[in-house]
Structure prediction request, 159 residues.
Amino acid sequence: MKVKLTIFILILATQAFCQEFVQKKSVYIELGGSAGFGSVNYENIFNKNGKIDLLWRIGISGFPIDKNAGFVFIIPTTISGLIGKKNHKIELGIGQGISMSTKGRFFSLTTPVIGYRYQNAGKRFFYRVSYTPLISYILDFQYQNWLGISIGYNLNSMK
Prediction:
């Protein structure tokens, strides 16, 4: 009986916590940015405490390189923090761009993120501008300055 009661209390506590915290899910298109020439992305704000909102994102991109490398698929992943009040936020993060070509070539790039994000709390759309240098370190060290511009859409209801 004590085990059943303990399990029941744990389930209730978990449900109460989940109802209190609503994850913010979004999709956005990024031109430039951490995938190179552009990407389509999904993001989830998983910790919202009023001072710093923590989020993760995953995306997909692809483009032809040349006949030796073929077509390259890129999966950008990032963990970031949004710092600021209400509509205006600074985004700081770090990510990894994982790439695979149709000719079997694999490479990875580290992608820091330093940016600005405007998202009106009552609206579904948001806008981002970010500095996302591409850093390669597998075969040799390369650093490329890169910028990203994004337009996104919040999937959650705006209650």
